[in-house]
Each structure stands twice: as structure tokens, then as C-alpha cells.
Amino acid sequence: MEDISAVKIPAFVSSDPALWFGMLESTFELAIPKPITHERTKYNYCVAHLSPDAAMAVRDVILSPGSTNPYSKLKEEVIARCGESKSQEIRRLLAGEQLGDRKPSELFRVMQRRSESHNVADSLLLELFLQQLPPNVQSILASIQPLTAQKASEVADRILEVTPAQVSAASKYSSANSDNCSESELLKELKFLRQEVKELRRSRSFSRNRFNSRNRGKSPKPTASNLCW
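The structure corresponding to this sequence follows.
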């Protein structure tokens, strides 16, 4: 048996068991006075910190752990039984995460993570991402070509930073048909936001051109042998 080591086990992450096991194994590596490597010791720590629901899901494994690699077997079963199945993950992705109080780029990272194991095309990821943005932001992004999902998340962040109140008002109008916001006002807001995007793209292009100019080699000066007298 290993010597008793001091460790602080992270709380079980029911929404992402694989992530929890990654955190757990890092904790084992940092144990004092030495890392925890014995399978049975890791198994005991794992069982003691599973949530009640997770423990019930692997009840048979806990009651009959076996003598060979009990921790590895338990880890495999917890992830398989408690993690989202592929079909569940796809449905959740297609159903769409809500933007809420998050930045568009934060929402995009969540959707990107959920799509990694399904080989989702960028065009589909872009479509799903755009569906969760305010209507006015969608309209502006639709005018940018070419547009990738990654680029859309970056530009959407910038749009909301520049005029969060205006985008919010436009979104509320589109969803609730508010009488306080006229069509002409919405068109003005849309025109303003599009101009902001154009200026953003122009500034980025200018920065790239300056960088390229600085790195472009200077033309060699003419030598005396090349001069005509």
C-alpha cells in the first residue's frame, strides 16, 4: 500500500465526467509527500467523491471492483454511463446554447467544444452560432464575406462592445415587436453598426499593411559601378 498522501479532491462535475477525471489525476500528481499512483488508492478516492447519482450509475462496479486496475475500470464506466452520449451531445448542440449574459466568443467556445467529437463542418457551426445572436448582429455579420465561425464570434464581440444598448433595443424590438422603436430607428442603428464593422475591418487591414511595409526589405542603393557618367 502507498503511504497516506494529502490531497484535496475537486467536486464531481456531473456535466463533464471526463473533465473531472482530468482534474482528479492532476490532483493525484500533486499529492504530498509523493504522487498517488496505486490503482486501489485512486479507486478509493474516486468512489468517495462521486456524486450520489453517479455512484448509482456505476453501482455494480463499486460493489464488485475486481482486483485488476479497479480505478481504470471505474473511470471508463463513469465516463461511459454518466457523460453525454454522442446523440445527446448532438441534440444539445443543434438545440443551441443561449447567449444570455455571455460574450458571443464565450458562447462560440462552448459550441465549438461540444462539436469537436462530431466533425461538425464550420459552415454548420457558423449557422448554429448565428442563430443565437441578436437579429441586428446577424444582419451585420451576413454582410461580411467570407465569414468563418471564429471570425463571426470576434466581430460579434466588437459589435456588442461598441453599441450594446442599441443592439439590445433592436433585439427586444424583433422579439416583442415593441412600439417604442420605429422601423426607421432600427434602420439607422443597423447602418451605424455596419459602419462600425467597416471601420474595424479597415483598421485591421491598415495594421497588416503597416506590418508588411516594415518587414519588406529596402531596395539596394546603386553602387558606383552601376552609375552612368
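Residues 183-215 form the longest helix (33 residues).
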